[in-house]
Design goal:
about 550 residues, alpha+beta, 4-stranded mixed β-sheet, 22 helices
Length: about 550
């Protein structure tokens, strides 16, 4: 592992890379001012490609925490140039192994015994090595085959130094490139590294998530041996299998890859949307499949937890997307923290959502949700392409924020889609997501909650009208108005009418459910018809 001198060298290499990137773009922007846009457009892609190669080469050389930071930065694919996204996504967390004598000394210190008395046998060559630690095969005195993960001896010192460097680099870059929420990337890297350095927390996460998904058949998380585990040593049952993307081996074992892919997506939906605590690193190296077709999830160093607010709002956003409800999409994105509540953010966001809806509904012809099915030819000349020309990077970075909870979730989602598309290209993830969403809605009082929410929204809309009118008059007096004037009286009347229809219709529905008289169901149907008619007639108010 790295010494103090090498840490200084790491710092110099990292700062040198940052300066190269900043100055290359500075000279290009100066050239744009002198020679015009054509000069800039002809050279920008080449600059992106050259700098992306610099980033990939330097991070691959530095390894350690820089690899993890690069992998998280790859989730900024909606803002970063494509060349960077490709370079960062290709990063692999491979690290040189520590000498076995160092490993042996650390194990004996942590477990308070000699390695010969603690284990019946212990292989001296690790089967895997990464930036935080390395994994060995061993056998306990009780006979169980185990995997023993042991931290590198000076990893805490190296981690502390690398975190300081990464923080300074992000501050330097964000000084020139304003991306809202980029500071959260460092925060997430710091949290993730601190948690990965604590194997006791990883063991607790494994036990908790294992209990949460116990009802799903054919999914396994290795058993933790607490007697041989500490904050720096983690011993789990050794599980053998092949990588989930080794399709030739899966086919040889006659495993139904489509069924496996559906189970893979289902278990992550449960972790994320129901439990909130989820395994945040589902790359193929951490996902094994045995001969019986059992999915084995490994390495819980990267685990994340969603707040109740985000966990509850994600299904709402998914439903809005499936229904192409642009207003609800905008509201959900605001609640999730992706866009601000100011008027300018809403205007740009509405344009983005409208263009994306048109693009998916009218301009792209594909049968599955496989990202690979959408090509650059689909985008060129489309509503998305036209919008890209209208809205520049500067405007985009002003409105788009990166909620800190979303960084690891987005990376998890990208890995989930990429792995499932490799495993079973013909599978449509929406065929798994739709019935799962239906289950979430219909169980645990979901339908009743939706009905009550609908009533509450209509009622709150009525109550908010006087406040909105007051706000309108205040802004008008202050000269701050920039929205279209609407007929508040017509809107108030329409909303009141719709509220009455909705209230009578729902009351009649429940009366029919409990009493059974036909008149109630006829009334409910009539009120629903009147409600829909009123909403259609007043849709422009």
């Amino acid at each position: 592992m790295k010494s103090r001198i090498s840490i200084r060298k790491r710092s110099k290499k990292a700062y040198r890379l940052t300066n190269q990137l900043l100055f290359s773009y500075l000279f290009l922007f100066l050239g744009k001012k002198v020679f015009g846009n054509r000069y800039y457009e002809k050279r920008i892609d080449a600059i992106h490609t050259k700098n992306a190669k610099r980033v990939e080469s330097t991070i691959s050389e530095l390894q350690g925490l820089f690899t993890k930071a690069g992998q998280l930065l790859s989730t900024l694919s909606h803002i970063l140039p494509e060349q960077y996204m490709q370079a960062l996504e290709s990063l692999q967390d491979d690290a040189p192994t520590s000498p076995f004598e160092e490993t042996k000394a650390l194990i004996e210190k942590e477990l308070n015994g000699t390695i010969d008395t603690l284990f019946e046998s212990f292989e001296t060559v690790p089967i895997a090595s990464a930036s935080i630690g390395q994994v060995y095969r061993a056998r306990l005195n009780s006979g169980e085959h185990v995997a023993v993960k042991v931290q590198h001896s000076n990893i805490e010192e190296l981690a502390k130094a690398d975190l300081v460097i990464i923080e300074k680099l992000i501050k330097r870059v964000s000084h020139f490139v304003k991306i809202q929420g980029i500071e959260h990337v460092y925060g997430q890297v710091k949290i993730m590294i601190e948690e990965e350095l604590d194997y006791e927390k990883e063991a607790n996460s494994m036990n908790t998530i294992s209990a949460n998904i116990a009802e799903i058949e054919g999914v396994m998380i290795p058993e933790v041996f607490a007697s041989h585990s500490t904050q720096r040593v983690l011993t789990t049952k050794f599980e053998s299998g092949t990588k989930i993307t080794n399709v030739s081996q899966l086919d040889e074992w006659k495993i139904d890859r489509k069924a496996l892919g559906e189970k893979f997506i289902l278990v992550y939906l449960k972790m994320i949307l129901e439990n909130g605590l989820y395994h945040a690193d589902p790359h193929p190296g951490n996902l094994l499949v045995n001969k019986e077709g059992v999915l084995i999830i490994l390495d819980f160093g990267a685990v994340s937890r969603l707040s109740d607010g985000m966990r509850n709002e994600i299904p709402v956003l998914l439903q809005a997307i499936l229904r192409k409800d642009e207003a609800k999409i905008l509201t959900s994105l605001r609640k999730l923290g992706f866009i601000g509540s100011d008027a300018e953010s809403s205007k740009v966001a509405k344009k983005l959502i409208g263009a994306l809806s048109q693009f998916l509904q009218n301009e792209v012809k594909f049968d599955s949700m496989n990202i690979k099915d959408i090509s650059m030819d689909d985008i060129k000349g489309s509503s998305i392409d036209n919008l890209r020309k209208e809205i520049g990077l500067k405007e985009l970075t002003k409105i788009i924020r990166i909620p800190k909870e979303w960084i690891l979730l987005d990376r998890t989602f990208q890995l989930l889609i990429g792995t499932s598309s490799t495993l079973a290209p013909e599978m449509n993830p929406m065929d798994v997501i739709r019935p799962y969403m239906k289950k979430l809605i219909t169980e645990d009082g979901g339908v009743q909650k939706m009905i009550l929410d609908a009533i509450k929204q209509q009622f709150m809309a009525l109550l908010q009208l006087p406040g909105e009118l007051s706000l309108f008059l205040t802004k008008a007096n202050q000269g701050e108005m920039e929205v279209n004037i609407r007929n508040s009286g017509d809107r108030s009347y329409a909303l009141g009418q719709q509220f009455i229809y909705l209230f009578i219709g729902i009351s009649s529905f429940f009366a029919y459910h409990f009493i059974g008289s036909t008149i109630y169901i006829i009334t409910a149907i009539a009120m629903c018809t009147m409600l829909l008619r009123s909403m259609w007639i007043n849709r422009r108010i």
